[in-house]
């Protein structure tokens, strides 16, 4: 169902892994001790924009970051919280994974405000964890859990790209290389597009580990370090897949050039063999008087023998010189 008021999700966490969903009125109520709130908004809806701008209690720079359409992954300590912008692969039906979707998060010790336009798959995972009582117990744990879920799906897409490259390499080894040229180009395009956002996201996660934030515990930093290492491996695997695709593409081009050269070489050999034969038949075919054997009924047979002998002689000469 289309969202009309901009509030995609609002959850009050109880600090023990569980939580309850609330509406616009619920997020304005005071929190009990140990509770924290997650407010998830569609930044394209006017009501959500109005709430962030006038009721969220945020600084102007944070408001602009949460509502801005074009973003790049980054993290920065805000005036009274932490601002994190991440990108996730687009796994929505009919979408290309490399058409990445942005997530903007502002978080402090008791409140999380996140905005997006297109749906993220981690949202369903988060709600499932809340229902089973395995959700985050602090805002820091919420942030690390979100990054882990997003990076996990990124890693799956990168692994799929690696598997595709491996299949195409095997196809080339089986001499079925003509059909993989466009597929290799598509994989390289996907890898380049993904890396455009994954590289700065890797740096954003690295910087996030070093931020001095009171509500971000050592356990959260350790968890985030593991997520960052996972992100680094994903970028490295993506670079390796792109390089393998480039090498495979070069090998394919080399094979095609070699095949073309072989065919041109054979055509050149055939032309070289028939060149003197064509000269003789052309010379004997001129319509003037005095052509040898014009009145001899056996002349045609003798000409055929002579042409055959010349052809065999040329063949053995080419073989002896290793031209064939």
Detailed description of the structure:
With 324 residues, the chain is an alpha+beta fold. It has 2 domains: 7-254, CorA soluble domain-like (Beta Polymerase, domain 2); 285-320. The protein has 8 helices and 7 strands; from the N terminus they run E-E-H-E-H-H-E-E-E-E-H-H-H-H-H. A 7-stranded mixed β-sheet has the order 2-1-3-7-6-5-4, with helices on both faces. Helix 6 (181-210) packs antiparallel against helix 7. The mean pLDDT is 85.
Brief overview:
The chain is an alpha+beta fold and 324 residues long.
Attribute tags:
single chain; Beta Polymerase, domain 2; alpha+beta; 7-stranded mixed sheet; 2 domains; 7 strands; 324 residues
Radius of gyration: 35 Å
The first-level CATH class name of the largest domain:
Alpha Beta
Question: What's the SSE pattern?
Answer: EEHEHHEEEEHHHHH
Q: Quaternary status of these chains?
A: single chain
| Biggest beta sheet summary | 7 strands, mixed
Which runs of at least 5 residues are low in confidence (pLDDT < 50)? Answer: none
Query: What count of structural domains?
Result: 2
- How much of the sequence is in beta strands? 5-15%
Strand order of the largest sheet: 2-1-3-7-6-5-4
| Number of E strands | 7
Helix content: 55-70%
Total DSSP helices: 8
CATH 4th-level superfamily of the largest domain: CorA soluble domain-like
Helix-strand blueprint:
Layout: E1 7-13, E2 19-21, H1 24-27, E3 36-42, H2 46-54, H3 60-67, E4 74-77, E5 82-88, E6 101-107, E7 111-116, H4 122-131, H5 139-173, H6 181-210, H7 218-284, H8 299-320
Parallel strand pairs: 3-7
Antiparallel strand pairs: 1-2, 1-3, 4-5, 5-6, 6-7
